[in-house]
């Protein structure tokens, strides 16, 4: 892409903030577009052996003086005989009534994955895939535009995602598949086995960052004979996203083109009877028809193109 070229306008709902890896704590960052129902924040981290406490604050601004309101304060404490979590709201410089949750599911010296799922009236929190607490908003969620992380915590990654639109494949919490942090990272092209094929309810997840001067991004599902009955391709030359048939026919997908250099994206494919549903950055984009026998005979997920992979799950 030349410097003179302009990016096509993209609706805010289609834009995902790139993940952050190994930030130094205390860490404060703007949440692109603020918080709204349907947003999900994922925290991958380690609790140090000598940890006393840490906190994750969803703030209404980032000023130092006066201190900003905190709509949701999540504060695990390890220094007592019974480790627990305190949740609260700071409004006008004053803390409100605190809520306490015992039986903290975090251990000193251990890694963890926390999901914060923001709904219309409350935030739900899961720890390592298990529901831990829910907290009803005391300030409007729309006022939140800043994330702050403080205290005794070694942060590995912070991800900003949208909740999956697939009702058929949903559970109380989506599977918070972690970002790949350690070397070697997934090489591109990447191949992942599908030993049992694809069955209704199964979801494929791909998260990646578009590289500089990209050419294409291609996701294909192949059978034992290496035929590809399903291919999804983003072409950077003509800015199109399309399904490609085994015979090379292109079926354009009506959606904003998101695959620009240094843009983070998430592809979800939900297997259902007779085909696959597609979502890009949490936005449903319809389906493509594939007969069930062909889905069951798939044996490989293959990804190629000008991307850096952060997560591949099938």
Automatic annotation (TrEMBL):
Segments forming domain Galectin: 27-161, 190-314
Q: Name one GO cellular component term.
A: nucleus
Q: What is this protein called?
A: Galectin
Database matches in CDD domains = GLECT (cd00070)
Keywords in alphabetical order, please.
Apoptosis, Lectin, Nucleus, Repeat
Output the InterPro entries linked to this UniProt entry.
ConA-like_dom_sf, Galectin-like, Galectin_CRD
Organism whose genome encodes this protein: Rhinopithecus bieti
Q: What GO molecular function terms would the record report?
A: lactose binding
**Where can this protein be found?**
Nucleus
Q: Repeat: present as a keyword of the record?
A: yes
What are its GO biological-process terms? intrinsic apoptotic signaling pathway
The protein's matches in Gene3D superfamilies, at most eight in alphabetical order, are given as:
2.60.120.200
Q: What does this protein do?
A: Binds lactose. May participate in the apoptosis of adipocytes.
Superkingdom of this entry's organism? Eukaryota
Q: Where along the sequence do coiled-coil regions lie?
A: none
């Amino acid at each position: 892409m030349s410097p003179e070229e302009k990016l096509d306008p993209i609706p805010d709902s289609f834009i995902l903030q790139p993940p952050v890896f190994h930030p130094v704590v205390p860490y404060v960052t703007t949440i692109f577009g603020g918080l709204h129902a349907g947003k999900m924040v994922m925290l991958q981290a380690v609790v140090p052996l000598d940890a006393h406490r840490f906190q994750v604050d969803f703030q209404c601004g980032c000023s130092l003086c006066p201190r900003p309101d905190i709509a949701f304060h999540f504060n695990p404490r390890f220094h007592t005989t019974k480790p627990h979590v305190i949740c609260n709201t700071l409004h006008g410089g004053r803390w409100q009534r605190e809520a306490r949750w015992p039986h903290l599911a975090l251990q000193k010296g251990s890694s963890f994955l926390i999901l914060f799922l923001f709904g219309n009236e409350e935030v739900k929190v899961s720890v390592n895939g298990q529901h831990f607490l829910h907290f009803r908003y005391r300030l409007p969620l729309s006022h939140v535009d800043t994330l702050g992380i403080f205290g005794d915590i070694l942060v590995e990654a912070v991800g900003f995602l949208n909740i999956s639109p697939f009702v058929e494949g949903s559970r109380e919490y989506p599977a918070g598949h972690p970002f790949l942090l350690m070397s070697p990272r997934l090489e591109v092209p990447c191949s992942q086995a599908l030993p049992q094929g694809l069955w209704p309810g199964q979801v494929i997840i791909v998260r990646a960052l578009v590289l500089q001067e990209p050419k294409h991004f291609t996701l294909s599902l192949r059978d034992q004979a290496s035929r590809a009955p399903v291919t999804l391709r983003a072409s950077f030359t003509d800015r199109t996203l399309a399904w490609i048939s085994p015979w090379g026919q292109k079926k354009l997908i009506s959606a904003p083109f998101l695959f620009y250099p240094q843009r983070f994206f998430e592809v979800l494919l939900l297997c259902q009877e007779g085909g696959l549903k597609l979502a890009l950055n949490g936005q449903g984009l319809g389906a493509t028809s594939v007969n069930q026998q062909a889905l069951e005979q798939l044996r490989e997920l293959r990804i190629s193109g000008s991307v850096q992979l952060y997560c591949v799950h099938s």
